[in-house]
């Protein structure tokens, strides 16, 4: 269970595309002086539930390519706000639930989410805690240890998946609860991306070779003990930072409960070094076959980058598929 859901109020559009096992009730607000609905719900929330009496400044925060991010400075402290004028609140709902789940573990620092909602004119927003980041990504060994502590602390009794579907970048990420990890990862991660590549690009070659890989993928998990751990899900360098005290901070999750090794799927652009892995495996011991499985978790993210950004990532994905077919069909 997510303990901090009471901190978040959700507003849903009528075209809610994401399934959920939870039912959310909208909080009842006291009548306000203005009878009409505010055209700026972000400002309205900050000046009421956010306990601020004035907003002293708004400044852009760089780093994202999908949403617009801003810092709202107020007399009650600063808030971090992300907005998207094209997409409804479902994407931010998934992010808020993921942040809440990670926040509950009290392991690695994440921004606390406060509010998700829709703009009257279309689009959506999320308001969360603003964390003053430091000048570096922090100590790699501390990051490895704290990430492992999060994985160890948060397990699921429902199997593999998450309470809602969410997004990886802007690609839908299906999180239907599944009891078997190999089935979940094969169908809801790899096969979903393979089908998308076929639909978007007519890429029957990568789809057909991917199907050959999926038929034999179980051999990669022999002798491994797999538990459903809470994963950040999109852990690359842009989503890793540190606070002003040097403690690691992780941002912009695509959370679900999965095999802990899947967390390293973005290692090709995360910069994890030896000290990171050493510290991580002191808390979460390395499973047999870890090295031979590493690329199967890279494959999901290479396929997603192919689907999001185009053919520049196709060769990396195809190379992994070809290498595994050669090994597994030998």
From TrEMBL:
EC number, UniProt record: 2.7.1.172
InterPro entries xrefs: Fructo-/Ketosamine-3-kinase, Kinase-like_dom_sf
Lineage top rank: taxon: Eukaryota
Subcellular location per the Swiss-Prot or TrEMBL entry: Plastid, Chloroplast
UniProt keyword annotations, A-Z: ATP-binding, Chloroplast, Kinase, Nucleotide-binding, Plastid, Transferase
Enzymatic class: transferase
Catalytic activity reported: N(6)-D-ribulosyl-L-lysyl-[protein] + ATP = N(6)-(3-O-phospho-D-ribulosyl)-L-lysyl-[protein] + ADP + H(+); N(6)-(D-erythrulosyl)-L-lysyl-[protein] + ATP = N(6)-(3-O-phospho-D-erythrulosyl)-L-lysyl-[protein] + ADP + H(+)
Pfam families, per database record: Fructosamin_kin
MF GO annotations: ATP binding; kinase activity; protein-ribulosamine 3-kinase activity
Any single Gene Ontology cellular-component annotation: chloroplast
Physiological role: Initiates a process leading to the deglycation of proteins. Phosphorylates low-molecular-mass and protein-bound erythrulosamines and ribulosamines, but not fructosamines or psicosamines, on the third carbon of the sugar moiety. Protein-bound erythrulosamine 3-phosphates and ribulosamine 3-phosphates are unstable and decompose under physiological conditions.
Family of the protein in this entry: Belongs to the fructosamine kinase family.
Name of the protein this chain belongs to: Protein-ribulosamine 3-kinase, chloroplastic
Annotated source species: Helianthus annuus (Common sunflower)
